[in-house]
Amino acid sequence: MSVKVYVDGQAGTTGLKIVSRLEQREDISLLKIADADRHNNVKRAEIMAEADFTFLCLPDDAAREAVTLAGNSTRLIDASTAHRTNPKWAYGFPELAPEFREKLRDSRKTAVPGCYASGFISLLYPMVKHGLIPADFPVFAYATSGYSGAGKNAIAIYEGKDKPEEFYSPRQYALSQQHKHLPEMQLFSGLTCKPMFNPIICDYYSGMVVSVPIQTRMLDQKISLAQVNSMFQEHYADAKLVTVNPVLSEQEQKSFFLASNTLSGKNKLEIFTFGNDEQILLCARLDNLGKGASGAAVQCLNIMMGIDETTGLL
Fold this sequence. Notes:
- This protein folds into two domains: 3-112 and 292-305, Rossmann fold (3-Layer(aba) Sandwich); 115-288, Dihydrodipicolinate Reductase, domain 2 (2-Layer Sandwich), CATH 3.30.360.
- It is globular.
- Strand 1 (3-8), helix 1 (13-22) and strand 2 (28-31) form a beta-alpha-beta unit.
- The strands form two sheets. A seven-stranded mixed sheet has the order 8-9-7-10-13-12-11.
- Helix 1 crosses helix 10 (290-305), helix 4 (98-106) packs across helix 10 and helix 5 (115-129) runs parallel beside helix 7 (182-189).
- It is an alpha/beta fold.
- The protein has helices at residues 13-22, 41-50, 60-70, 98-106, 115-129, 152-158, 182-189, 225-235, 250-254, 290-305, and strands at 3-8, 28-31, 53-56, 75-78, 90-91, 109-111, 140-145, 171-172, 196-201, 208-215, 242-244, 269-275, 279-286.
- Helices cover 32% and strands 20% of the residues.
């Protein structure tokens, strides 16, 4: 018997990706809404009431309204920013710890992590959890990302014939330190102070790398690059969609380039540890549309359904 799934916001980037992933599966029955009815709340509520699971791929305010519209008739998986820091919602990053997975499995309301936040939290949660850095450590992160996460208008400019010259260059943004992912990044990393975050949008379609430099001289305890890598290896030992790469030798690092689009179209997240014992560089690579959005959303659905979390993702 197939599970009935509705994607509210099926015309957006994330919604389209979720639909394309699910329509290939025999255990899923996708409920569709006519284009003319996408903003008809009566029709939307009727389909939600019929669905076992409903994805919300909407702007934040619309996602909040959709929760009221849905009531308790369907299990919700929200891909917006609206509910990620709400303690009543399960946070959809099961690899972080068993308690995240358990809450997700039984939840009626799940928030899908943000793309930048996924990379950042994959690095900082274990570092704080295992005591390698204190919760009040002054954390700075930067990230490079493809333009697919910038919205329809930006995508149209990047792919248009009259693209402005500056769009060919990497562009820094959110310079006021008010990026919408910051509350989520702080909360689920266990940090007591808001991190600084410098996102950079680049002229390629999808994929990202989130990087966090650690100056170990600022720590009260001495830690080594090998120790940090070993911790990550152990923490994610059972993760099916998170891979921790071994430490490269100094010579290997000199000739290595870390591209941001390598995992484009895939649903995995890779962790790297670079540098040396004095200056450690933590990096997480993922697809902002995969493990950073639609892939993570489908992974949450699979766990909530009680099936293998990688179904339809590998």
